[in-house]
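Notebook, p. 212. Picked up where the previous page left off. The plan for this session was modest: take the two constructs that came back from the sequencing core last week, fold each one, and keep the raw output in the notebook itself so nobody has to go hunting through shared drives later. Recording the first one now, exactly as returned: residue sequence, then the structure token string.
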Amino acid sequence: MNSALRLLAFLALLAPLAWAAPPLPTVTVYKSPSCGCCGKWVEHMKLSGFPVVTVDTENVAAHKARLGVPLAMGSCHTAEVGGYLVEGHVPAADVKRLLSEKPRARGLVSPGMPASAPGMDDPRRIPYEILLVGKDGRTTSYARH
């Protein structure tokens, strides 16, 4: 095989690596050690390709305050990824969109515990909304499910 063909064969082997998506950043999740739905959301994130570090704590509220979760927008767990907060049962696809678009914002919230959100597992399709939290703490609609 001449050197030109060897070079082409080598480049053909490398081509898929050049097109591969960059790895997703690690999601750090702060949750109560006894919360089952939080564990299910962690599994949802892992199945969607995110590496996840779980921090069991009895003081999730301290992390909500530190990250700037607006009052009345809380849920059972709080996470941070790529410099953003992710509050509650936000679908992984919305987190991926956030990381792709990189808005000037604090992050995403899924207020309360929507029954059909990831990790809650209600088989019915009960509509819920994901909100984007701006740097000023105001929220706007980001996604509807």
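Okay, moving on. Second construct, recorded in the same format:
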Amino acid sequence: MSGSGYAAIARRLGIDVVIPMKSVVVDSILSHLLGGNVRGVHRVGDGSVEVLEMDVGADAPVLGTRLDELRIAAGALVMLVSRGGEGKDAFIPRGDYAFAAGDRVALIVKKGGEMEAERLFGTRS
């Protein structure tokens, strides 16, 4: 069955959005390739922007850095921070927020900026 066939069935079931299996597979592979701190990679639109979900490493360069002091050359925006595990105490950080080990962050990153995000938020090697 073609992709449009699945979309028609999904509409009949009341499903608004259908995510192609190819996108799920590619995102999963990217998550594994980037590093241990990356929990998920999701391409947006034409793939020129990605949402990264990652854990702040125990000795990450961003530890103690305030959001308003953070400079990411490749262009990224910290959208959400979660403390205390998945979905617990999730909030949109303000400029005075300082990163701590174990924080889970969701970043929107221009394509090509994934490695810099991993370098800043991940564990040093």
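Notes on construct two before I forget. The helical segments are 3-12, 21-34, 114-121.
Flagging for discussion at group meeting.
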